[in-house]
Amino acid sequence: MFLTISTTGTPERPATDLGYLLHKHPDKAQTFSTSHGTAQVFYPEASAERCTAALLLEVDPVALVRRGKGKGRGGAPDAALAQYVNDRPYAASSLLSVAMTTVFKSALNGVCRAMPERAEEPLPLRIEVPALPARGGPELVHKLFAPLGWTRVDAVAVPLDEQFPEWGDSRYVRLVLEGELRLADALRQLYVLLPVLDDAKHYWVAPDEVDKLLRAGEGWLAGHPEQKLITSRYLSRRWGLTRQAMERLELVRLAESDDLEVESVDNAVDETTDTEEKPVPLAEQRRTAILEALRAAGAARVLDLGCGQGQLVQALLKDVRFTEIVGVDVSMRALTVAARRLKLDRMGERQAGRVTLRQGALTYTDKQLKGYDAAVLSEVIEHLDLPRLPALEYAVFGSARPRTVLVTTPNVEYNVRWETLPAGHVRHGDHRFEWTREEFRDWAEQVAGRHGYTVTFVAVGPDDPEVGPPTQMAVFTMTTAQGTTAHDTTTQDTTDQGTTAHEAAARRTTKEAKAA
Q1: C-alpha span between 242 and 210 (Å, rounded)
Q2: Phi then psi dihedrals of residue 474, to 5 deg
Q3: Residue ranges of the chain with pLDDT lower than 70?
Q4: Can you tell me the distance from the alpha carbon of 397 to that of 303, in angstroms, rounded to the nearest whole number?
Q5: What is the DSSP letter of 243?
Q6: Helix, strand, coil % in the chain, rounded to nearest 5
Q7: Closest to 431 in 3D by CA, of 381, 391, 392, 389
């Protein structure tokens, strides 16, 4: 199988810089051993104006059969005789991808000590693959490569037999890509998409393939329109691994949309401490207060927004009057812990039908969260930066609009009663603010007034006569018959568009949020 990479240059920036980027000297032909044969790198042309590097992989059919042992897509891709007669030595596949990691490892990682600045710059590239299996035809090739910045994507179908055109085309194409990309990005795309188009791998797909996919897909896979197909095929349709990869890619997308690090978004699970207060059972008192308020409101279908590790969801499941419970959190780690806590994999069919765990960012509107009796934001708002509160406010009160909304948050005045909490410190390292009773009341009353709710306040925990309770809870109850105020109707068309809604809500109420 064969692959060529070409670039052009000038006397000031010669094309032969490609040799530095690939760590292969243009004046030499080099040979490398791979697990299934021999890879050779050589340069058919090398001048200041144009340079081409070629990778030729000669597959050892005996090694292929021995390693594949006649099983799976590697040893026998289509039939029992495939270990004797197959296209593996000739058509670009996962064999070529693995050879690229052996031969061009530094280039794939974007490392070039001799010319670090060139490694970070886009180059005018031309990549050719003479024989590429493409299950899905030229149309799929275009769908996969066109969104990645290539200005030219030519995928010409190879006929089954030129002497018999009536037989039609084979599943192979001749691929030509042209465009200005970083060399590392181009190589990573090929590393992932060659086996995706072939729709087969020559080795067993283990869980570590998810990490390989995410590393190679960094910067382009999370936003690719064919992300699901790429992920599924790359992981050989192993649904558990595909689901895991998709969840992690969604977390990357959410982090990129907010210009944040993934770690700062996926932080609902504290690695060092349990978020439940063990010395004082305040967490249990908080859940009890929430359950009592939900029962008093007659709620049956409940959203737990920012459900974390699933403690409240677990408590809700114990009461049969709550017929549908949806836990939403941006952190997949937290949702995994919650699923384990709830024993979802061993739960009976009827019980499992009552609960759903979903990944989602609470600062974005979601049509699927509309129509519920109640929503709970338990110890959630204090984890957001103040300028982002208007977006959460609109997503919950303006778009989802449950009949009842419960919001609990720490009372900062009570912090002086915590002997182990240093003065001036918040209760959790991720808290962006903690409000006094007056500040919380002002915010809640403004929210209720803007969206057609009334609000009452409940003390949670011991109500100290000087500093109040440790936790304060606001109970919002909708007052409008249809659940839509005139103010909301004017912005409804934009609110279901995610980022647009976020920005509209932020512009509308930033002044009030800052005042709070």
Answers
A1: 8
A2: -105, 130
A3: 63, 65-84, 255-280, 480-516
A4: 13
A5: H
A6: 40, 20, 35
A7: 381
C-alpha atoms less than 13 angstroms from C-alpha of 455 in its C-beta half-sphere:
22
**Under 8 Å between Cβ of 308 and 334:** yes
Spatial separation of the C-alpha atoms in residues 191 and 171, rounded to whole Å: 20
Q: What is the rounded distance in angstroms from the CA atom of residue 497 to the CA atom of residue 494? A: 6
Question: Token digits for 3?
Answer: 């692959």
**Residues 179/150, Cβ–Cβ less than 8 Å:** yes
Q: Do 63 and 36 meet the contact criterion of CB atoms below 8 Å apart?
A: yes
φ, ψ of residue 42 to 5 degrees: the values are: -150, 170
What stretches of 219-358 show up as alpha helix (H) in DSSP? 227-234, 239-257, 262-265, 282-297, 311-317, 332-342, 349-352
pLDDT at 512: 44
Q: What is the pTM of this model?
A: 0.57
Identity of the residue numbered 385:
D
Beta strand 301-305 with 374-378: parallel, antiparallel or unpaired? parallel
Site of tokens 């803007």: 450
Residues 79 and 504: their CA atoms lie apart, in Å, by 58
Q: What's the pLDDT score for residue 5? A: 97
3-class secondary structure per residue, 335-389: HHHHHHHHCHHHCCHHHHCCEEEEECCCCCCCHHHCCCCEEEEECCHHHCCHHHH
